[in-house]
């Protein structure tokens, strides 16, 4: 199968990092803010009510800090499952919307991070633009995502998605989407999809 996989909050723990660094950033701006905040949004500055200018300022500083201090880690078993899928003959595309605006060279930084954690792949793409268009143009069978915005882009062109379940995506509904609670479950779902694909191919050959 041809599998596309998002990076932030799909392979990695980016939301956790974004929330903690955004909390510290908010304390610099509002040192007397003692409110409790719940990490239930995909975009951390949304939680603290930042305007667009403050949002941009946060990400310009924070992405440099993330790279400099190596703050992002893989989700449990994500590296094992991705490498196992690759070793079993699947085509793996790392497909991230990370842009050069905040990451510098987003593709180089992403490749460097994947190499650091020994995560292997067939292709790696950053600054992705529409993930739906990319998946359609490259005959992707299934896309692993966390962001419902991108899942919809992919589903809208008739391609299946697997969403890593989170508070901010749990209400997404589409017949072409399946939720997974963890990476071992991702592996199980992909095996099931692959068996169906092989069965359908065998049936087509018999017609």
Describe this structure as you would to a colleague.
The structure is a single chain. The chain contains nine helices and six strands, in the order βααααβααβαβαββα. The model has no long low-confidence stretch (mean pLDDT 93). Strands 3-2-1-4-5-6 form a six-stranded parallel sheet, sandwiched between helices. The protein has helices at residues 14-29, 44-48, 52-69, 78-87, 100-103, 106-116, 131-137, 148-156, 183-206, and strands at 2-5, 91-95, 123-125, 142-145, 160-164, 177-180. Helices cover 50% and strands 12% of the residues. It is an alpha/beta fold and 207 residues long. Helix 7 runs parallel beside helix 8.
SSE ordering: EHHHHEHHEHEHEEH
Secondary-structure class: alpha/beta
Biggest sheet descriptor: 6 strands, parallel
Rg: 18 Å
Work out the strand percent: 5-15%
- What is the CA–CA distance across the termini? 22 Å
Q: Pick out the low-confidence regions.
A: none
Overall outline: globular
| Helical content class | 40-55%
Major sheet strand order: 3-2-1-4-5-6
Give the tally of β-strands.
6
What's the total helix number? 9
Quick check: average pLDDT?
A: 93
